[in-house]
Amino acid sequence: MANPLRDPRDRRIPRVAEPSVLVMFGVTGDLARKKLLPAIYDLANRGLLPPGFSLVGFARRDWADQDFAQLTYEALRQHARTMFREEVWQQVRDGIRFVSGDFADDEAFDRLAETVSALDAERGTAGNRAFYLSIPPSQFPLVVRQLERSGLSGGPDVPGWRRVVIEKPFGHDLTSARDLNDLLASVFPPHSVFRIDHYLGKETVQNLLALRFANTLFEPIWNRRYVDHVQITMAEDIGIGGRAGYYDGIGAARDVIQNHLLQLLALTAMEEPVSFAFDALRAEKQKALSAVQIPDDMAAGTARGQYAAGWQGGIPVPGFLSEDGIATDSATETYAAIRLGVDTRRWAGVPFYLRTGKRLATRMTEIAVIFQRAPHLPFNATDAKELGQNALVIRVQPDEGITMRFGSKVPGSAMEVRDVNMDFAYGESFTESSPEAYERLLLDVLVGDPPLFPGHDEVELSWKILDPIEEFWAAHGRPEPYLAGTAGPASADAMMARDGRIWRRL
């Protein structure tokens, strides 16, 4: 007999999706081929998708069902993380359908409606449908309106649930974000809109919540009395690749800070939620974001750069202005750093430094909580400059884990103290393999559990933070060049130096 007191959101019990149809727009793109389609197979292989689960692809290609099935098969054989099993593939294959058409084609969406209705009858999907928009943001309004016109978006008298999934960016600024939110709200209820930020699906990001709230060791010192500052970094060692059409005019701050890094800031700075249900978690993140203060002096509290030709891994690489598809006079930044405050009792006076960039010295995403120096050093043999600050570093990628930095006595007769590290690595501590971020997020969509998805209020608050900075940059010249393969522009180091601090080494 089921326990009536058990919370159905209890994470200790494996969550399995209901029979449903996932309609994927943009199935021929890299995201679908490398991440989404393999994630669907991996979920099925883990026993988290029911036999009735069905996948419908929509694209302009003149394909039959078997052509889309072949694309899916090739994608999962190349990119799936779990072992290939023929019986699992056949389960997925039996539910695959394809609809050919253009986003402006009413007849194509009518055929799509007929296809998913037929799957309800054939595979028992009971009207449960999720629509994944892996498409350019400019196409969101057209597709959402087509879903409404064709009846695919459902209504109060339609059986089953309807959910829509959109990828970042969630707008270009506050105005466009509000327009998008209004459009989505006019067609889908708020609990049916899932805004995917794949960084929030990473195991290490979720472990930040466990680190803070499941350990009495950390929470008492997680405040202004002990913390000197916080650094949140997402560094990439690659250039823009084939993303020139998207990236030019967007830049590093809109691409990464507005979503990924501000979400990490919110999780770091928020108060403890009453539960990890999506409404409680979102409420605390919103409070944290609403308390964020931008620099009074934008010139002193922000920095931006643009990578120039240099060396990466011993190989010469071109500068941003020499990349295919980039205008030679482009003022788009590929590096951005900003200093923010969080005006709450917990964090008053503690700066949060956010930085991101391309063509940097290494690939790394981390949250580093840097603690205040010891107020008194009675160690005659220790150079005060050599003794650093305690730090707690949450490594999001690539080597997921946590590092603690603290002072320890150097062996010998003198009382000399030196900084040492203590590491926890996911790969060494658990036999269970972590699910890929898109596996977790797709499963959240299919079971209707959205705590890791930013709500529309969070999106708008993030744009309120970033818009004034973007406006300042637009009015004040060009980004500073920095050599590819380095740590970024000199202005970012100068921003930290003015505060008497330094960036963690990349």
What oligomeric state is this? Answer: single chain
Low-confidence stretches: 1-13
Provide mean pLDDT, rounded: 88
Our Rg estimate from Cα atoms comes to 24 Å
* Sheet/helix structural class: alpha/beta
Give me the count of strands.
18
Overall, the morphology is globular
Helix content: 25-40%
Total helices: the number is: 15
Terminal-residue CA separation: 54 Å
Classify the beta-strand content into a percent band: 15-25%
What is the makeup of the main sheet?
Answer: 10 strands, mixed
Question: What does this protein structure show overall?
Answer:
Strands 7, 8, 9, 12, 13, 14, 15, 16, 17 and 18 form a ten-stranded mixed beta sheet that branches. The relative contact order is 0.13. Helix 6 (174-187) packs antiparallel against helix 14 (456-475) and helix 10 packs parallel to helix 14. The chain is α/β, with parallel strands linked by helices and 506 residues long. Helix content is 35%, strand content 21%.
